[in-house]
């Protein structure tokens, strides 16, 4: 079935991965499916709610009404042929876990699943889900760093390393960049710079930040917060 999907979608592929099955077309599943489609990935969307499926029918490669807690239904849909399946069900714990377990039993190579709590995430990991996604938790962490107004965007890669987008701190404006000294003094480093004239470019030692530039800076989240206040 997955091979049939590859012939159905004609637009240029921007993300070079095989078709993806998204089980659950709520807010998370719908948002994910839209993003995949926009980047040239073929998507099979499945939900037990006919209205949800109808709303996505013209957007997705294929949208199907089915009970994802029924192993036979997933087999008939050819879910086992997909390399990547995303379980976007979060609010209904039983449905989420049963669906994820069914997909794991089909020996899908990568099973991604949404979790709404720590206990939910632990159960999903124990039954063999490859990657657990916590969208509300991750968004909450991100927004917490944006509330001060100085940081324009925030992305965490680990507990001790993140990147922020912000206007150049006053002490950096008009001075040649010395990343080694910046790391030694503030434990952060500048990765890239956006200017209205040149867009995004790597920022190397000796480059000078202007007041209307935007910097991408990496380091420990605590140190990044301090930089944002300077």
Describe the model.
The protein is α/β, with parallel strands linked by helices and 230 residues long. The chain has 9 helices and 11 strands. Strands 3-2-1-4-5-6 form a 6-stranded parallel β-sheet, sandwiched between helices. Strands 7-8-11-9-10 form a 5-stranded antiparallel β-sheet. The protein is elongated. It starts with a helix and ends with a helix. About 4% of the residues have low confidence.
How does the SSE layout of this entry go?
Blueprint: H1 2-8, E1 20-23, H2 27-38, E2 43-47, H3 50-56, E3 62-65, H4 71-76, E4 84-87, H5 93-105, E5 110-114, H6 118-126, E6 131-133, H7 135-146, E7 151-158, E8 161-166, H8 179-186, E9 188-195, E10 199-202, E11 214-219, H9 221-229
Parallel strand pairs: 1-2, 1-4, 2-3, 4-5, 5-6
Antiparallel strand pairs: 7-8, 8-11, 9-10, 9-11
Task: Summarize this structure as a short list of keywords or feature phrases.
230 residues, alpha/beta, five-stranded antiparallel sheet, 25% strand
Strands side by side in the biggest sheet: 3-2-1-4-5-6
Instruction: Determine the strand fraction and express it as a percent band.
Output: 15-25%
Using the CA coordinates, give the radius of gyration.
22 Å
Task: Assign a percent range to the helix content.
Answer: 25-40%
List segments where confidence is low: pLDDT < 50 over at least 5 consecutive residues.
4-13
Mean pLDDT figure: 90
Number of helices: 9
């Amino acid at each position: 079935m997955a091979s049939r999907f590859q012939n159905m979608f004609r637009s240029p592929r921007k993300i070079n991965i095989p078709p993806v099955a998204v089980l659950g077309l709520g807010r998370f599943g719908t948002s994910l499916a839209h993003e995949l489609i926009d980047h040239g990935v073929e998507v099979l969307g499945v939900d037990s709610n006919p209205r949800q499926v109808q709303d996505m029918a013209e957007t997705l490669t294929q949208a199907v009404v089915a009970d994802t807690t029924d192993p036979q239904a997933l087999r008939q849909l050819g879910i086992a042929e997909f390399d990547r399946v995303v379980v976007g069900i979060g609010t209904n714990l039983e449905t989420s876990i049963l669906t994820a377990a069914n997909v794991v039993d089909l020996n899908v190579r990568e099973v991604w699943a949404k979790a709404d709590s720590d206990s939910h995430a632990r159960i999903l990991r124990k039954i063999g889900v490859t990657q657990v996604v916590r969208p509300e938790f991750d968004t909450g962490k991100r927004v917490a760093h944006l509330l001060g107004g100085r940081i324009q965007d925030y992305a965490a890669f680990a507990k001790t390393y993140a990147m922020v987008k912000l206007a150049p701190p006053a002490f950096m404006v008009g001075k040649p960049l010395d990343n080694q000294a910046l790391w030694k003094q503030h434990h952060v480093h500048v990765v890239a710079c956006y200017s209205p004239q040149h867009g995004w470019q790597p920022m190397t030692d000796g480059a000078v930040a202007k007041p209307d530039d935007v910097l991408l800076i990496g380091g420990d989240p605590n140190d990044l917060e301090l930089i944002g206040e300077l």
